[in-house]
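Quick question: what would this complex look like in 3D?
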Amino acid sequence: MINYLIQEPKQDPQGDLPWDGVPAHEIDFWGQLPVQAGTFDHVDGLFYFTYAVCIIFFVIITGVLLYSVFAHRRKTWDQKPLSNVTHNTPLEVVWTIVPLIIVMIMFAWGFKGSLDMTTVPHEAQRNTYKATAKQWNWTFIYPDATQSIAEVYVEVDKPVQFILESTDVLHAFYIPVMRVKRDIVPGRYQSVWFHPIKQGVYPLFCAEYCGDDHSRMYAKVHVVDAATMADRPWNKVPAEDKPVERIAYGARLARQLCASCHKMRDTDTVVTGPSWLGMFTKQGDTYVGRQREVLEGGVTKTITTDDAYIIESIKDPTKKIVAEAPYNKNSMSKFDTLTDDRVACLIAYMKSLADN
Amino acid sequence: MTTNTPAVDVQTTQPKAPRENYLNCTTSFKSWALTLDHKRIGLMYLIGTSLAFLAGGVFALLVRLHLWEPEGMLFSNPTYNQIFTLHGAFMVFLFVIPAIPGSLGNIVMPLMVGAKDVALPKLNLLSFYLWVIGAVMAVAAIVMGGFDTGWTFYAPYSLYTDQAVVTIGLAIFVLGFSSIFTGLNFIVTVHKLRAPGMTWFRMPLFVWAIYATAILQVLATPVLGITVLLVAFERLYNVGIFDPRLGGDPVLFEHFFWFYSHPAVYIMVLPAFGIISELVTVHSRKPLFGYKLIAFSSIAIAIISFLVWGHHMFTSGQSTYAMFAFSFLTFFVAIPTAIKEFSWVATVWKGSVALNSPMLYTLAFLIIFAIGGLTGVILGALNVDLHLHDTYFVVAHFHYVMMGSIALAFFAGLHHWWPKMFGIMYNEFQAKIACALIFIGFNATFLPQFVMGSRGMPRRYATYVPEYADYHKASTIGAMILGTGVALMVFYLVASLFIRKKAKQNQWGGVTLDWMCPTPPPHLNFDEEPQVVHEVYDYTTLDYETLQRDCD
Ligand SMILES: [Cu+2]
Ligand SMILES: [Cu+2]
């Protein structure tokens, strides 16, 4: 017990809460379920059907019970019962068969609905996201390989599938307004799909207990129209007057797009492309590129790895190829769709590697 | 009373020396600690499990208090996680599973079948001490830093967390054996020690229920024992069984766990059904409606309950076939359960219904269990479960069954057999107040949880989104009322031991053998071997004289 008493008192939450800016669920007419933003109407249908059946049975049971308790209560200590009946076969058959029929309806309805929820349609398969759960946050990877953390954008009226993966313990992917829930089991891929039809921002909860900050494992689900989606709001480049954010953004891009070939951290082991460590050195306040032997049109040259060279290496990698083996054999794929702004962030990140 | 023999006359006119009974026949500490008397062992179980219940209740109140504020009032998140785990583990493993069979089952069942004791008294004592060892280990686990896995111990979290999981796992292993031995003992007792004339269909339904439970205990508990051992093994020696990093499978853990824990739900609830069957007939003074159907439905439930464990795992990515089978059988098991509820209500119908405190607790049970059972049907529907699974809806549902039904049935049974056990009565008025408080408090606690659950509030959250705050507050207030009711109950029950208001020989007018032997029973229960000559629950045979006569 002592353990609990000497624990530090609860801290006030630092900074913003993960659900800031997300409106409370809009609740439906009957007050029980959040208004659905998806298309699994059968969940609500069966829920309220069962609910109604339950209420009817409850009223009958308690009604008969309370009536007989009141009407047949014992008034004198030696009062005998009004009846000594021990069974009534027709009645017993009825109250066995009727509930049996009702629950079989519920079973069939529920099973059919669950088939709908577990069979991913083709449209959703063509719009596949990946959600990675780890203690205690969510990372989403979009069909175009961009990524976002703690929030995800999906397009309205376009079915979407999420491939779910956990890097540590069990979690569960739960969006109440979509009525989807799926456990995320480490070592396996799971999938869910839904069809958002209502724009808005909705909560995504982790529903399977996963340790200390289980209750903070929250993400915002933005359902937006196609125009907003095309703008990729999750992938906005930070403004130029925010150098720290730009480096962080560059780092994220580099992890997503380049880390499969380039070493950029001491712990990386890839050798497909030249390491980025040592690409720049810091002299005073400026970053100076290293000397490089490159092949341009079969001719060996020595150049400095300055911004221009890097931009060229990214947008047109075959123009100058690193002469040192084995890099001269492999060529890098083109990244000519990366905007200049993003490339600038990447370069800022590469330079920042010289800081330590 | 005019034809009294002199011997009886001496007794009635000189009430000084109470007749020798199991409580006062010997008094040394050793005679209690090493007793082989099922009634004394039952009493010790009663004290032990009640303490565990109170501890679990304190944890529950802490949980509810903490959740008063969306950001939590009392604890850091890790501490909250430990507290709710302790609440669950204490309640399930130390109270709900052992309480009714261990205490009331032990005390009443042998009386009901007309036996001198259980078949294997030494094993019975061993069961109790295993329970004690398990309880001590559970407390040791708290001292060693606690555990934060939830009472379900899901892998791989339970493998990675740096807490006393091995200790509590072994505690559960030991408790499991306590439960298995009790089950074994009761099976043998029911088969071998029934009094002459006590045919199977003259057995009171409490005995049937304890018997069905015992079968489940013996068959299901070993699986739990093996599972927790495997977890301990994996933690200690890094063998890959459930840990995906070592090639294990976390879903396998869920299968093992629920293969035990679903039947365990019935290990917990069947004895409660038994108590209610008993009380409904006695306090309505009317034969139980559909006796055979109830008896068979206990057995049916015991069998089917082995085949529905997958309904705890609908979201785990089971195959469609598995979903189909588990959902179907889950709905199916609703039927025998519904039959019981209907039969109880039909028993009350046209009875001579006494509104004393055991009956009030029973009525509270019948209403709460109706809600608990019916909401289970909502959860059985596959598509709906995908929304409701792991939300407060589930929390509310199983508290309606575990706390609202099982604990209330336990209270009902306790009030019913209290005069039998001690020969004294508690304060009826206070008992009725406590029952009302518990009923109101319970519903106030858990009805709001249904609503927030279906609105999406996930369970096991130390902090929550503010939109659920009102429901959490209502729930916390309810828990305070509930806590007050329980505190009052503990108060008047304990107080009755000091006030010593004499009970009647047959306080409620039962006609089963437990009311035929002297109150409180002597060491060997019956003065002479009982003979069963009439059908069970035949109230035409009720001897009204015993209703008025003070107990010995
Ligand atoms: Cu999680
Ligand atoms: Cu179950």
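Answer marked as accepted. Chain A touches chain B through 102 residues (CB under 8 Å).
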